Amino acid sequence: YDATPYLPARGGLPAHRRAAAGCRGCPLYRDATGTVFGEGGKDARVMLVGEQPGDQEDREGVPFVGPAGRLLSRALRDAGIDEDGLYVTNAVKHFKFTRDETRKRRIHKAPSLRETLACRPWLMAELRLVSPELVIVLGATAGRSLLGPSFRVGTDRGVPRPMPGTEDGPRVLATVHPSAVLRATDRKSAYEGLVADLRTAAGILS
Ligand code: URA
């Protein structure tokens, strides 16, 4: 599995977005509606990286437009981060799912490490083209892609660090995935933890 052969040899975000629409670098393109590429300008100071598009993102072709995205918007607002001026993307650009018994609902399935690494060249291209000052990693899948397979949200969250393998690269700050907040038994404290990490991010920017 590898997206590399599908990347354009040159061009900016628009050329990459067009090429990503035809990516067959792993099998996830087969069942998804389409590729969900990142959204935002090349001048964004902050890049947010989620896991993969959800059901609604898959149908609309835009990242973080469903329930997790609404929670994320609220958390960004509470942390004082302006959403205009962000670049928002995912570690994996196709929706992976199984169907329930009635075959009506599509149920999110976490991408494998192999699928995540296959999609990584798209994320690396977005990082190179946007060149943000700060990357906010949302959850384990994005963390494993950007910080290595031993990444653990529980131990690695909330502490800014340099991007591995770069010298003047962006700072990286990991936090929980907004979907994990939606699933948490103690939703209020999970939400407060997310906002606290995003406030740390806001502090790096100001
Ligand atoms: N969850 C993600 O990680 N990304 C999205 O775009 C939506 C939900």
UniProtKB/TrEMBL annotation:
<keyword id="KW-0234">DNA repair</keyword>
<keyword id="KW-0479">Metal-binding</keyword>
<keyword id="KW-0378">Hydrolase</keyword>
<protein>
    <recommendedName>
        <fullName>Type-4 uracil-DNA glycosylase</fullName>
    </recommendedName>
</protein>
<keyword id="KW-0411">Iron-sulfur</keyword>
<comment type="similarity">
    <text>Belongs to the uracil-DNA glycosylase (UDG) superfamily. Type 4 (UDGa) family.</text>
</comment>
<keyword id="KW-0227">DNA damage</keyword>
<keyword id="KW-0004">4Fe-4S</keyword>
<feature type="domain" description="Uracil-DNA glycosylase-like">
    <location>
        <begin position="37"/>
        <end position="199"/>
    </location>
</feature>
<keyword id="KW-0408">Iron</keyword>
